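Example record

The entry below shows one chain as it appears in the dataset: sequence first, then structure tokens.
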Amino acid sequence: MKIACVGGGPASLYFSILMKRQDPSCDITVHERNRAGSTYGWGVTYWGGLLDRLREHDPESAAAVDENSVRWTDGVAHVRDVRTVHRGDEGFGIGRRRMLGLLAARAESLGVRLEFEHEVTADDIPDADLVVAGDGVNSTLRERHAGHFGTDVRLGRNRYIWLGTTQVFDRFTFSFQETDHGWIWAYAYGFSGERSTCVVECSPETWTGLGLDRAAEADGLALLEKLFAGILDGHPLIGRDRADGAAQWLNFRTLTNRTWSRGNLVLIGDAAHTTHYSIGAGTTLALEDAISLAGALRDRDGLGPALARYEQERKAELLRLQSAARLSAQWYENLPRYIHLPPRQMFALLGQRHSPLLPYVPPQLYYRLDRAAGQLEMLRRFKRWLGPRLARTSQTRALAARK
């Protein structure tokens, strides 16, 4: 099979790796419009379950990703000057550029051709048995047939900007700061021994009130450094990690498609779907798309049925995460509803932001109900643990009394 992957992101690269592993005779080329080593963004996050899946499908790339990741187990929230720590699941961070380099090297070692600085347009689609559109949320190949794919894009209300910093965070860190124009907050996490990602978000009213809509990049960064001085500890914020433009304030675009394929063209990763960055799942979902698509093609019962099976499987698996992402984005868009709670309660509800009930229950009541439910569950577990032991003890004593 001759395969052309358009876009050199995690989905395309990992898909090419998996296809070469399951069928070395595949002729695969990955076309990337940027030069090698040039990518937007800073670090990406993922959770332990992804490493398990990568080990299952390609132990070599899994080991490389694992060795180049940093990990954390705690979350910490700063609300004004109050600091709250929460124990959580183990999370991982890795530089986006580093991850792409590792996957590219692994793909090349298996015989995949990588063509950098080669932009594929809608009028110049490569001649191949299968064309994989992994060219991101602004996919040129998808946009040519947007009506067929049923592409729908919905803008989030809040503004956000994706930055880096030389401050190295050893925990996933939140900082919520109040200004004369409303609240502004940051999510920060390490991805190497030298750098961290820092995503800043606020309402449109706060964005314009602070003048961030019209500030030059240097002035905007200086203001943000002042607002988040407590967590930055003297370290600077950095705009783009490359020299082709300033970091931009954006509205997040939630993208969905009614169908994911057209003939021999199939969508993958952000070209097919996006989920709000606040759940940290974008890279994981792209890699899982690659796993699913390669698996569907393994049975070789025809390209059409394979692409249909891939789409059906991934859409079903995405439902829960898409719902969680939508609720997470809405939690931040309604931050004033929660921010004036005691910090520990606010942080607890931050962890519960995926709940479909939370928007409809008064926050303090929800917190109390959630705490009570947790205690009841602990009591149930304790009873399940204690019951058999009491039964065995009673039986032992009864037997001893008969002797």
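Notes for this example: The mean pLDDT is 90. Residues 46 and 92 are 5 Å apart (CA to CA).
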